[in-house]
Amino acid sequence: MAPIPQKTDNIFGHPETEVRRLDDELRLSEARFASLVEHIGLGVAIISRDMRILTLNRQMRQWFPGVSAVLRPVCYRTFRDPPGEEICPGCPTHLAFMDGQVHESVTETPSADGMRRFKVVASPLRDALGRVTSVIEIVEDVTDIQRIQQELKASEERYRAVVARSRNAMALYETVDGGADFIIKEFNEAAEKLEGLEKADVIGRRVLEVFPDARQCGLFGAIQRVWQTGRSEHLPVLFYENDRVSGWWENFVYKIPSGEVVNFYTDETRRKRDEEKIRLHESELQAKSQHLEDVNAALRVLLDQRQKDRKEIEATVTSNVEELILPYLQQLKAGNLSARESALVETVAANLDSIVSPFIRNINREAMSLSPMELRVADQVREGHTNQQIADLMGVSVNTILTHRFHVRKKLGLKNRKVNLRTYLRTMGKNSDPVSLIHP
Protein backbone atom coordinates (compact mmCIF):
# COMPACT_ATOMS: atom_id res chain seq x y z
CA MET A 1 0.00 0.00 0.00
CA ALA A 2 1.30 3.37 -0.92
CA PRO A 3 1.87 5.93 1.94
CA ILE A 4 -0.85 8.53 2.49
CA PRO A 5 0.52 12.02 1.59
CA GLN A 6 0.31 14.82 4.25
CA LYS A 7 -2.31 17.51 3.62
CA THR A 8 -1.07 21.01 2.80
CA ASP A 9 -3.04 24.29 2.94
CA ASN A 10 -1.63 26.35 0.13
CA ILE A 11 0.07 26.11 -3.16
CA PHE A 12 3.39 27.04 -1.61
CA GLY A 13 3.44 23.86 0.39
CA HIS A 14 3.31 25.53 3.91
CA PRO A 15 1.64 23.49 6.59
CA GLU A 16 -1.80 24.74 7.70
CA THR A 17 -0.52 25.42 11.22
CA GLU A 18 2.16 27.76 9.88
CA VAL A 19 -0.34 29.75 7.83
CA ARG A 20 -2.62 30.05 10.84
CA ARG A 21 0.27 31.32 13.00
CA LEU A 22 1.26 33.91 10.44
CA ASP A 23 -2.35 35.01 10.11
CA ASP A 24 -2.63 35.41 13.89
CA GLU A 25 0.56 37.49 14.01
CA LEU A 26 -0.76 39.69 11.23
CA ARG A 27 -4.03 40.29 13.05
CA LEU A 28 -2.13 41.05 16.27
CA SER A 29 0.15 43.50 14.48
CA GLU A 30 -2.85 45.16 12.86
CA ALA A 31 -4.57 45.38 16.25
CA ARG A 32 -1.47 46.95 17.77
CA PHE A 33 -1.24 49.45 14.93
CA ALA A 34 -4.94 50.24 15.20
CA SER A 35 -4.57 50.78 18.97
CA LEU A 36 -1.55 53.00 18.41
CA VAL A 37 -3.42 55.06 15.82
CA GLU A 38 -6.49 55.23 18.05
CA HIS A 39 -4.70 56.46 21.14
CA ILE A 40 -1.90 58.56 19.69
CA GLY A 41 -2.01 62.20 20.75
CA LEU A 42 -2.37 63.31 17.13
CA GLY A 43 -5.37 63.22 14.86
CA VAL A 44 -5.42 60.52 12.17
CA ALA A 45 -7.82 60.40 9.23
CA ILE A 46 -7.92 58.38 6.01
CA ILE A 47 -9.40 60.20 3.03
CA SER A 48 -10.56 58.62 -0.22
CA ARG A 49 -9.98 59.94 -3.74
CA ASP A 50 -13.37 61.62 -3.77
CA MET A 51 -12.34 63.43 -0.51
CA ARG A 52 -14.58 61.35 1.72
CA ILE A 53 -13.65 60.42 5.25
CA LEU A 54 -12.98 56.70 5.59
CA THR A 55 -11.52 56.53 9.09
CA LEU A 56 -11.16 58.85 12.12
CA ASN A 57 -9.19 58.06 15.27
CA ARG A 58 -10.25 59.09 18.78
CA GLN A 59 -8.44 62.45 18.70
CA MET A 60 -10.20 63.44 15.48
CA ARG A 61 -13.56 62.38 16.94
CA GLN A 62 -12.87 64.58 19.98
CA TRP A 63 -12.07 67.57 17.77
CA PHE A 64 -15.10 66.91 15.57
CA PRO A 65 -17.63 65.11 17.81
CA GLY A 66 -20.48 65.31 15.31
CA VAL A 67 -18.63 63.54 12.49
CA SER A 68 -19.12 59.81 11.79
CA ALA A 69 -16.82 58.01 9.35
CA VAL A 70 -19.49 55.38 8.80
CA LEU A 71 -21.46 57.88 6.70
CA ARG A 72 -18.42 58.61 4.55
CA PRO A 73 -18.89 62.42 4.68
CA VAL A 74 -16.92 64.79 2.45
CA CYS A 75 -14.03 66.22 4.44
CA TYR A 76 -14.20 69.89 3.35
CA ARG A 77 -17.93 69.97 4.15
CA THR A 78 -17.55 68.16 7.46
CA PHE A 79 -14.47 69.67 9.02
CA ARG A 80 -15.52 73.29 8.33
CA ASP A 81 -18.19 75.37 10.03
CA PRO A 82 -19.98 76.56 8.02
CA PRO A 83 -19.46 73.71 5.55
CA GLY A 84 -17.26 74.34 2.50
CA GLU A 85 -18.44 73.89 -1.07
CA GLU A 86 -15.11 72.99 -2.64
CA ILE A 87 -11.69 71.58 -1.79
CA CYS A 88 -9.75 73.85 0.54
CA PRO A 89 -7.05 75.95 -1.20
CA GLY A 90 -3.64 74.34 -0.75
CA CYS A 91 -5.14 71.17 0.72
CA PRO A 92 -2.14 68.82 1.31
CA THR A 93 -4.37 65.71 0.87
CA HIS A 94 -5.54 66.87 -2.54
CA LEU A 95 -1.92 67.58 -3.52
CA ALA A 96 -0.87 64.09 -2.37
CA PHE A 97 -3.53 62.59 -4.66
CA MET A 98 -2.30 64.76 -7.50
CA ASP A 99 1.44 63.93 -7.41
CA GLY A 100 1.75 60.98 -5.02
CA GLN A 101 4.10 62.91 -2.73
CA VAL A 102 3.96 63.76 0.97
CA HIS A 103 2.65 67.28 1.60
CA GLU A 104 2.47 69.39 4.71
CA SER A 105 0.69 72.63 5.51
CA VAL A 106 -1.02 74.56 8.27
CA THR A 107 -4.70 74.99 7.50
CA GLU A 108 -7.17 77.43 8.98
CA THR A 109 -10.42 75.68 9.72
CA PRO A 110 -13.48 77.76 10.71
CA SER A 111 -15.35 76.41 13.73
CA ALA A 112 -18.01 77.51 16.18
CA ASP A 113 -15.24 78.47 18.64
CA GLY A 114 -13.41 80.57 16.06
CA MET A 115 -10.63 79.85 13.61
CA ARG A 116 -8.69 76.68 14.41
CA ARG A 117 -5.23 76.03 12.96
CA PHE A 118 -4.19 72.47 12.14
CA LYS A 119 -0.83 71.23 10.93
CA VAL A 120 -1.59 68.46 8.41
CA VAL A 121 0.90 65.96 7.00
CA ALA A 122 -0.71 64.04 4.11
CA SER A 123 0.92 60.75 2.97
CA PRO A 124 -0.42 58.72 0.01
CA LEU A 125 -1.49 55.06 0.54
CA ARG A 126 -0.94 52.77 -2.48
CA ASP A 127 -2.37 49.43 -3.61
CA ALA A 128 -0.39 46.43 -4.81
CA LEU A 129 0.02 48.10 -8.19
CA GLY A 130 1.42 51.30 -6.71
CA ARG A 131 -1.69 53.35 -7.35
CA VAL A 132 -2.71 55.96 -4.77
CA THR A 133 -6.02 54.76 -3.40
CA SER A 134 -6.29 56.97 -0.30
CA VAL A 135 -4.35 59.45 1.81
CA ILE A 136 -3.64 59.26 5.51
CA GLU A 137 -3.60 62.60 7.34
CA ILE A 138 -1.59 63.12 10.52
CA VAL A 139 -3.15 66.18 12.14
CA GLU A 140 -1.86 68.38 15.00
CA ASP A 141 -3.85 71.25 16.53
CA VAL A 142 -1.37 74.14 16.57
CA THR A 143 -3.88 76.89 17.38
CA ASP A 144 -2.49 77.54 20.86
CA ILE A 145 1.09 77.06 19.73
CA GLN A 146 0.72 79.59 16.94
CA ARG A 147 -1.12 81.97 19.27
CA ILE A 148 1.74 81.74 21.75
CA GLN A 149 4.24 82.15 18.94
CA GLN A 150 2.41 85.22 17.68
CA GLU A 151 2.21 86.68 21.20
CA LEU A 152 5.88 85.92 21.70
CA LYS A 153 6.70 87.56 18.37
CA ALA A 154 4.60 90.61 19.26
CA SER A 155 6.25 90.78 22.68
CA GLU A 156 9.67 90.53 21.11
CA GLU A 157 8.79 93.26 18.62
CA ARG A 158 7.58 95.49 21.47
CA TYR A 159 10.74 94.73 23.42
CA ARG A 160 12.90 95.54 20.41
CA ALA A 161 10.95 98.76 19.79
CA VAL A 162 11.37 99.83 23.42
CA VAL A 163 15.06 98.94 23.44
CA ALA A 164 15.64 100.58 20.06
CA ARG A 165 14.06 103.85 21.22
CA SER A 166 15.45 103.81 24.74
CA ARG A 167 17.47 106.85 25.75
CA ASN A 168 19.93 104.48 27.42
CA ALA A 169 22.47 102.66 25.31
CA MET A 170 21.97 98.88 25.28
CA ALA A 171 24.10 95.98 24.10
CA LEU A 172 23.28 92.27 24.26
CA TYR A 173 26.12 89.72 24.44
CA GLU A 174 26.27 85.95 23.87
CA THR A 175 29.19 84.03 25.30
CA VAL A 176 31.73 82.19 23.13
CA ASP A 177 34.79 80.13 23.99
CA GLY A 178 33.49 79.33 27.46
CA GLY A 179 33.22 82.97 28.51
CA ALA A 180 36.59 84.03 27.11
CA ASP A 181 34.78 86.48 24.86
CA PHE A 182 31.27 87.49 23.83
CA ILE A 183 29.43 88.05 20.55
CA ILE A 184 27.40 91.24 20.19
CA LYS A 185 23.80 90.18 19.47
CA GLU A 186 21.96 93.50 19.85
CA PHE A 187 22.96 97.15 19.68
CA ASN A 188 20.31 99.88 19.93
CA GLU A 189 20.15 103.39 18.44
CA ALA A 190 21.35 105.08 21.63
CA ALA A 191 24.43 102.81 21.64
CA GLU A 192 25.12 103.65 17.98
CA LYS A 193 25.00 107.35 18.79
CA LEU A 194 27.11 107.04 21.93
CA GLU A 195 29.75 104.76 20.40
CA GLY A 196 29.86 106.42 17.00
CA LEU A 197 29.23 103.04 15.31
CA GLU A 198 26.60 101.55 13.02
CA LYS A 199 24.64 98.55 14.28
CA ALA A 200 25.47 96.60 11.13
CA ASP A 201 29.18 97.08 11.84
CA VAL A 202 29.10 95.42 15.30
CA ILE A 203 26.39 92.73 15.25
CA GLY A 204 27.96 89.26 15.22
CA ARG A 205 31.44 90.53 16.11
CA ARG A 206 33.36 89.86 19.32
CA VAL A 207 33.28 92.42 22.12
CA LEU A 208 37.06 92.66 22.44
CA GLU A 209 37.38 92.98 18.69
CA VAL A 210 35.07 96.02 18.57
CA PHE A 211 35.91 97.42 22.02
CA PRO A 212 39.48 96.39 22.88
CA ASP A 213 39.59 98.94 25.76
CA ALA A 214 36.62 97.28 27.52
CA ARG A 215 39.02 95.06 29.48
CA GLN A 216 41.20 97.93 30.69
CA CYS A 217 38.30 100.02 32.02
CA GLY A 218 36.82 97.04 33.89
CA LEU A 219 33.64 96.56 31.85
CA PHE A 220 34.66 93.27 30.24
CA GLY A 221 35.53 91.73 33.63
CA ALA A 222 32.07 92.74 34.90
CA ILE A 223 30.41 91.07 31.88
CA GLN A 224 32.33 87.85 32.56
CA ARG A 225 31.46 87.85 36.28
CA VAL A 226 27.76 88.44 35.61
CA TRP A 227 27.70 85.61 33.06
CA GLN A 228 29.45 83.24 35.47
CA THR A 229 27.54 84.11 38.67
CA GLY A 230 24.22 85.41 37.37
CA ARG A 231 24.46 88.32 39.84
CA SER A 232 23.83 91.76 38.37
CA GLU A 233 26.46 94.45 38.74
CA HIS A 234 26.33 98.22 38.76
CA LEU A 235 29.54 99.86 37.64
CA PRO A 236 29.79 103.39 39.01
CA VAL A 237 30.81 106.10 36.59
CA LEU A 238 34.07 105.11 34.92
CA PHE A 239 36.19 106.77 32.26
CA TYR A 240 36.22 105.08 28.85
CA GLU A 241 38.36 106.16 25.92
CA ASN A 242 39.21 104.82 22.47
CA ASP A 243 40.08 106.22 19.07
CA ARG A 244 36.43 107.25 18.47
CA VAL A 245 35.00 108.54 21.74
CA SER A 246 35.93 109.31 25.30
CA GLY A 247 33.84 110.10 28.34
CA TRP A 248 32.40 109.03 31.68
CA TRP A 249 29.92 106.15 31.44
CA GLU A 250 27.73 104.37 33.99
CA ASN A 251 26.96 100.67 33.35
CA PHE A 252 24.26 98.25 34.59
CA VAL A 253 25.09 94.65 33.63
CA TYR A 254 22.77 91.68 34.23
CA LYS A 255 22.08 88.18 32.93
CA ILE A 256 18.75 87.21 31.34
CA PRO A 257 17.15 83.71 31.41
CA SER A 258 18.43 82.91 27.92
CA GLY A 259 21.97 83.04 29.32
CA GLU A 260 22.81 86.20 27.43
CA VAL A 261 24.22 89.27 29.16
CA VAL A 262 22.68 92.73 28.80
CA ASN A 263 24.51 96.00 29.41
CA PHE A 264 22.56 99.23 29.79
CA TYR A 265 24.83 102.25 29.96
CA THR A 266 24.50 106.01 29.97
CA ASP A 267 26.81 108.90 29.12
CA GLU A 268 27.49 110.78 32.37
CA THR A 269 30.19 113.04 30.92
CA ARG A 270 28.10 116.21 31.24
CA ARG A 271 27.16 115.34 34.82
CA LYS A 272 30.79 114.69 35.70
CA ARG A 273 31.80 118.01 34.15
CA ASP A 274 29.04 119.79 36.06
CA GLU A 275 30.13 118.08 39.28
CA GLU A 276 33.70 119.18 38.63
CA LYS A 277 32.53 122.76 38.04
CA ILE A 278 30.53 122.63 41.27
CA ARG A 279 33.53 121.21 43.11
CA LEU A 280 35.78 124.00 41.79
CA HIS A 281 33.13 126.59 42.61
CA GLU A 282 32.78 125.22 46.13
CA SER A 283 36.55 125.29 46.49
CA GLU A 284 36.59 128.92 45.35
CA LEU A 285 33.75 129.77 47.74
CA GLN A 286 35.59 128.05 50.56
CA ALA A 287 38.75 130.03 49.75
CA LYS A 288 36.75 133.28 49.63
CA SER A 289 35.01 132.37 52.87
CA GLN A 290 38.37 131.74 54.51
CA HIS A 291 39.61 135.06 53.13
CA LEU A 292 36.55 136.83 54.57
CA GLU A 293 37.15 135.16 57.93
CA ASP A 294 40.75 136.35 57.84
CA VAL A 295 39.61 139.88 56.93
CA ASN A 296 37.01 139.82 59.70
CA ALA A 297 39.63 138.69 62.16
CA ALA A 298 41.92 141.51 61.03
CA LEU A 299 39.03 144.00 61.31
CA ARG A 300 38.27 142.76 64.81
CA VAL A 301 41.90 143.33 65.75
CA LEU A 302 41.76 146.83 64.25
CA LEU A 303 38.49 147.59 66.07
CA ASP A 304 39.93 146.35 69.35
CA GLN A 305 42.98 148.52 68.79
CA ARG A 306 40.74 151.47 67.89
CA GLN A 307 38.81 151.00 71.13
CA LYS A 308 42.04 150.91 73.06
CA ASP A 309 43.27 154.02 71.24
CA ARG A 310 39.96 155.79 71.92
CA LYS A 311 40.14 154.96 75.61
CA GLU A 312 43.73 156.14 75.76
CA ILE A 313 42.75 159.41 74.03
CA GLU A 314 39.81 159.88 76.39
CA ALA A 315 42.04 159.23 79.38
CA THR A 316 44.60 161.70 78.04
CA VAL A 317 41.95 164.38 77.41
CA THR A 318 40.45 163.85 80.85
CA SER A 319 43.84 163.99 82.50
CA ASN A 320 44.79 167.17 80.64
CA VAL A 321 41.54 168.86 81.53
CA GLU A 322 41.91 167.90 85.18
CA GLU A 323 45.56 168.92 85.40
CA LEU A 324 45.84 171.86 83.00
CA ILE A 325 42.39 173.54 82.98
CA LEU A 326 40.43 172.74 86.12
CA PRO A 327 42.93 174.25 88.56
CA TYR A 328 42.66 177.61 86.77
CA LEU A 329 38.87 177.42 86.70
CA GLN A 330 38.85 176.76 90.45
CA GLN A 331 41.07 179.82 91.00
CA LEU A 332 38.70 181.93 88.86
CA LYS A 333 35.69 180.76 90.85
CA ALA A 334 37.47 181.64 94.10
CA GLY A 335 38.19 185.17 92.81
CA ASN A 336 36.05 188.28 93.08
CA LEU A 337 33.83 187.72 90.03
CA SER A 338 30.64 189.39 89.02
CA ALA A 339 27.48 187.37 88.58
CA ARG A 340 27.94 187.46 84.84
CA GLU A 341 31.53 186.29 85.05
CA SER A 342 30.60 183.50 87.50
CA ALA A 343 27.94 182.31 85.09
CA LEU A 344 30.45 182.22 82.24
CA VAL A 345 32.92 180.26 84.36
CA GLU A 346 30.15 177.82 85.22
CA THR A 347 29.31 177.49 81.53
CA VAL A 348 32.92 176.77 80.60
CA ALA A 349 33.11 174.18 83.36
CA ALA A 350 29.85 172.61 82.23
CA ASN A 351 31.06 172.44 78.62
CA LEU A 352 34.31 170.84 79.68
CA ASP A 353 32.32 168.40 81.76
CA SER A 354 30.18 167.59 78.69
CA ILE A 355 33.24 166.98 76.56
CA VAL A 356 34.72 164.37 78.87
CA SER A 357 31.47 162.99 80.31
CA PRO A 358 30.70 159.32 79.41
CA PHE A 359 27.05 160.21 79.81
CA ILE A 360 27.22 162.55 76.86
CA ARG A 361 28.84 159.83 74.77
CA ASN A 362 26.15 157.37 75.77
CA ILE A 363 23.34 159.75 75.11
CA ASN A 364 24.85 160.53 71.70
CA ARG A 365 24.71 156.84 70.82
CA GLU A 366 21.11 156.44 72.04
CA ALA A 367 19.69 159.73 70.79
CA MET A 368 21.72 160.91 67.83
CA SER A 369 19.06 163.43 66.88
CA LEU A 370 19.58 165.68 69.99
CA SER A 371 20.98 169.10 69.18
CA PRO A 372 24.02 170.48 71.06
CA MET A 373 21.77 172.78 73.14
CA GLU A 374 19.43 169.86 73.95
CA LEU A 375 22.46 167.78 75.04
CA ARG A 376 23.54 170.59 77.39
CA VAL A 377 20.03 170.88 78.86
CA ALA A 378 19.82 167.08 79.27
CA ASP A 379 23.18 167.06 81.08
CA GLN A 380 22.02 169.84 83.45
CA VAL A 381 18.72 168.06 84.13
CA ARG A 382 20.60 164.89 84.91
CA GLU A 383 22.75 166.84 87.42
CA GLY A 384 19.59 167.90 89.25
CA HIS A 385 19.52 171.60 88.28
CA THR A 386 16.17 173.34 88.15
CA ASN A 387 14.80 175.00 85.04
CA GLN A 388 15.61 178.45 86.48
CA GLN A 389 19.17 177.45 87.32
CA ILE A 390 19.70 176.06 83.85
CA ALA A 391 18.22 179.20 82.28
CA ASP A 392 20.44 181.48 84.36
CA LEU A 393 23.50 179.35 83.55
CA MET A 394 22.84 179.39 79.81
CA GLY A 395 21.58 182.97 79.71
CA VAL A 396 18.20 182.08 78.24
CA SER A 397 14.60 182.21 79.49
CA VAL A 398 12.87 179.46 81.45
CA ASN A 399 10.42 178.96 78.56
CA THR A 400 13.35 178.21 76.26
CA ILE A 401 14.58 175.57 78.72
CA LEU A 402 11.07 174.09 78.92
CA THR A 403 10.96 173.89 75.12
CA HIS A 404 14.32 172.11 75.03
CA ARG A 405 13.12 169.66 77.72
CA PHE A 406 10.01 168.94 75.66
CA HIS A 407 12.14 168.16 72.56
CA VAL A 408 14.47 165.93 74.62
CA ARG A 409 11.53 163.89 75.97
CA LYS A 410 10.06 163.57 72.49
CA LYS A 411 13.32 162.43 70.88
CA LEU A 412 14.01 159.98 73.68
CA GLY A 413 10.54 158.46 73.27
CA LEU A 414 9.20 159.77 76.59
CA LYS A 415 6.36 161.89 75.24
CA ASN A 416 3.03 161.14 76.97
CA ARG A 417 4.83 158.71 79.31
CA LYS A 418 4.87 159.15 83.05
CA VAL A 419 8.63 158.88 83.32
CA ASN A 420 10.82 161.34 85.22
CA LEU A 421 13.32 162.83 82.77
CA ARG A 422 16.16 163.13 85.31
CA THR A 423 15.67 159.53 86.48
CA TYR A 424 15.71 158.31 82.89
CA LEU A 425 18.84 160.32 82.04
CA ARG A 426 20.66 159.05 85.12
CA THR A 427 19.75 155.49 84.15
CA MET A 428 21.25 156.05 80.71
CA GLY A 429 24.53 157.10 82.27
CA LYS A 430 24.84 154.38 84.92
CA ASN A 431 26.67 151.84 82.77
CA SER A 432 29.36 154.40 82.05
CA ASP A 433 29.85 155.43 85.68
CA PRO A 434 30.14 159.13 84.72
CA VAL A 435 32.27 161.43 86.88
CA SER A 436 31.45 165.12 86.85
CA LEU A 437 34.54 167.29 86.59
CA ILE A 438 32.91 170.35 88.10
CA HIS A 439 30.34 168.97 90.56
CA PRO A 440 31.95 166.61 93.07
Could you characterize what this model shows?
This protein has 15 helices and 10 strands. It has 440 residues and is of the alpha+beta class. The chain folds into 3 domains: 32-142, Beta-Lactamase, CATH 3.30.450.20; 166-267, 2-Layer Sandwich (Beta-Lactamase), CATH 3.30.450.20; 336-430, Arc Repressor Mutant, subunit A (Orthogonal Bundle). The strands form 2 sheets. A 5-stranded antiparallel sheet has the order 2-1-5-4-3. A hairpin with a 4-residue loop joins β6 (169-176) and β7. α9 (269-334) runs antiparallel to α10. Mean pLDDT is 82; it is low at 4-8 and 431-440.
Q: What order do the helices and strands follow? A: HEEHHHEEEHEEHHHEEEHHHHHHH
Strand content: 15-25%
User: How many structural domains can be distinguished in the coordinates?
Assistant: 3
Strand order, sheet with most strands: 2-1-5-4-3
CATH architecture name of the largest domain: 2-Layer Sandwich
The overall pLDDT average reads 82
Largest sheet: 5 strands, antiparallel
Q: Can you identify the CATH class of the largest domain? A: Alpha Beta
What is the fold-level CATH name, i.e. the topology of the largest domain?
Beta-Lactamase
Number of strands: 10
C-alpha Rg, in Å?
60 Å
